[in-house]
């Protein structure tokens, strides 16, 4: 079994209205120290043991988990031992 | 300046219909190896240099960024040098 952590973020230059709203909310709560907020997605996948896990994860990210036009993705694959 | 990465995930046991939908979509795309998908949030904050950054981040997570009733959060604080 593998545990895969996928991080999807907006590409630099892509506007992030959700991040802007969160920044505004934080400022209104007196967290003036916050300069910028960018919101992304974090996904945890539990995946069966197969040979080409990395290639398949790459494929999933490109085809479903991220929108390659405006998003970037990265992932970490950890082997789960002892289950 | 600090760059703070905040990860928010659903607590174990909390149902994740969005994750279930993504799992279904992945299965219908022939990624049968996926056993479970849990969807969370990932936020990148750019924060000014202040003394008690960690305490403030903790406070932001508790009060706005995560819902402590059903979500867990973790964060990494990196110092940005040379800017």
Automatic annotation (TrEMBL), chains A, B:
Single GO molecular function: ATP binding
Function: Part of the phosphoribosylformylglycinamidine synthase complex involved in the purines biosynthetic pathway. Catalyzes the ATP-dependent conversion of formylglycinamide ribonucleotide (FGAR) and glutamine to yield formylglycinamidine ribonucleotide (FGAM) and glutamate. The FGAM synthase complex is composed of three subunits. PurQ produces an ammonia molecule by converting glutamine to glutamate. PurL transfers the ammonia molecule to FGAR to form FGAM in an ATP-dependent manner.
SUPFAM superfamilies for this protein: PurS-like
Localisation per UniProt entry: Cytoplasm
EC assignment: 6.3.5.3
Catalytic activity as recorded in UniProt: N(2)-formyl-N(1)-(5-phospho-beta-D-ribosyl)glycinamide + L-glutamine + ATP + H2O = 2-formamido-N(1)-(5-O-phospho-beta-D-ribosyl)acetamidine + L-glutamate + ADP + phosphate + H(+)
InterPro entries in the cross-refs: PurS, PurS-like_sf
GO BP terms: 'de novo' IMP biosynthetic process
GO CC annotations, alphabetized: cytoplasm
Species for this entry: Salinibacillus xinjiangensis
The family this protein is said to belong to: Belongs to the PurS family.
SUBUNIT field: Part of the FGAM synthase complex composed of 1 PurL, 1 PurQ and 2 PurS subunits.
Pfam families named among the record's database cross-references: PurS
Annotated pathway: Purine metabolism; IMP biosynthesis via de novo pathway; 5-amino-1-(5-phospho-D-ribosyl)imidazole from N(2)-formyl-N(1)-(5-phospho-D-ribosyl)glycinamide: step 1/2
HAMAP family: PurS (MF_01926)
Keyword terms, alphabetized: ATP-binding, Cytoplasm, Ligase, Nucleotide-binding, Purine biosynthesis
Domain of life: Bacteria
PANTHER family for the chain: PHOSPHORIBOSYLFORMYLGLYCINAMIDINE SYNTHASE SUBUNIT PURS
Protein name: Phosphoribosylformylglycinamidine synthase subunit PurS
